[in-house]
Amino acid sequence: MVFGDEAAIAEHLAASPGSLINTSYVARSNLNWYLWDAYLTRKLVTFTKALRWLKVKLTICVMCYNFVRPHSTLNKRSASSQEITPGMVARIADRQWTVEDLVGPTAFCQLN
User: Fold this and answer.
1) What is the SS3 assignment for 67?
2) How many domains does the chain have?
3) pLDDT (tens digit per residue) in 15-44
């Protein structure tokens, strides 16, 4: 074990769909980023020319993934019919955001 304490990891594993630590969640999120942004793929005509813009685009993708896009696996765990995002599960957001919430004029006020 590298990070965390054994009790916290055991508690998290008990609440997760699987009972083993594996890399499938990381591999799936990497696949999502590659599908959503062609600049992240390797050996293609498209590639990142400016690190600054890559960071901005990746931030928008991560925010959409965690606050805008509902996840069906999270909805199966919930008793309510409300669509649930990872931001709601982490109790960072109290509702599913819209794209306007994410990039609109009041977007940065919601994180305070």
Assistant:
1) helix
2) 1
3) 776 666 677 778 888 888 888 777 776 666
